[in-house]
Amino acid sequence: MDRKEPTIDRVFQALGDPTRRAILEKLSDGPVSVSRLAEPFGITLAAVVQHVQVLEECGLVHTEKLGRVRTCRIEAAGLQVAAQWIADRRSVWERRLDRLGDLLAEPNEPAEEPEWLG
Amino acid sequence: MAEPTVIHNTFVLERSYPVKPERVFAAFADTAKKRRWFIESDDDHAHTVEHYEMDFRVGGKETARVRLGPGTPVAGLACTNDITYLEIVPDRRIVFVSTMSIEDRCISASLGTFELLPTGNGTDLIFTHQAAFFEGSDGPAMRKEGWESMFARLTAELAG
């Protein structure tokens, strides 16, 4: 399967499904064959295959077929992309509050407090 | 059945500033002071400020539009924050809602709360940011190539 670069849309849609999140949790313990992934969820193999395809398309998991067995493992890049995007929002605010600190460290103008009308 | 796609995230940031709450509050309430820390950029995260205005009162609006600079992964895209103030207690508390849009597409909505706590001659500032992040949706198209190139670069950085 061709690897595509993960986009934020696909990663968030993948993470939005509770079964796919549960699959990722299971895979965080180590690689699992696709057929064994179906067992805990009581869903068909076809349904698991579809979930795994969604996860693989956005780079959250990687699958590999050896003989007749397709094995899934977690792929860090996709999760880091989503986490990175959210972390960027936090770091924007971190920089803002740092700049606020720099501004407050300047000597205050002798002038006015701002007129605040409420 | 349709699947949920919104991701929710809350973070809390804290700072201690060696000035009284009145001065910290002034940096929020005065437009000239506010823009200096809120939208002016560092060299590493350069952008061009295209528009900024603030009406600091309950129900008042604040708009910041910047064009992301050539050093950023989403170079050339316009990023807009639209803010509405919900509650203001002078020198103590500021509560607002904000949306962020890239070009014309809203990508997140958040509730922000600033608490200013006096500490002797200083102020502890606590910022709580509760946000909903949206996936791609119908409506004006985002510049997908911009996002995809951003993620190509992020992926390369994470792998390297």
Please, could you describe this protein's structure?
The complex is a heterodimer of chains A (118) and B (160). Chain A has helices at 8-15, 18-27, 34-38, 45-57, 76-105; strands at residues 32-33, 61-66, 69-74. With 118 residues, chain A is mainly α. Chain A has a domain at 8-77: Arc Repressor Mutant, subunit A (Orthogonal Bundle). Chain A has a three-stranded antiparallel beta sheet. By secondary structure, chain B is α+β, with helices and mostly antiparallel strands. Chain B has a single domain (7-159), classed as START domain (Alpha-D-Glucose-1,6-Bisphosphate, Chain A, domain 4), CATH 3.30.530. Chain B starts with 6 loop residues before the first strand and ends with a helix. Chain A binds chain B through residues 5-9, 12-13, 15-17, 59, 76-77, 80-82, 84-86, 89-90, 93-97, 99-105, 108, 113-114, 116-118, and chain B through 3-7, 9, 11, 13, 15, 17-19, 22-24, 26-27, 29-30, 33, 36-38, 40, 42, 45, 56-58, 88, 90, 100, 108, 125, 127, 129, 131, 133-136, 144, 147-148, 151-152, 154-155, 158-159.
Low-pLDDT parts of chain B are 136-151
**Count of spatially separate domains of chain B:** 1
Gap between N and C termini of chain B: 39 Å
Briefly, what CATH class of the domain at 8-77 in chain A? Mainly Alpha
Summed over residues and divided by their number, the pLDDT of chain A gives a mean of 79
- Total number of helices of chain B: 3
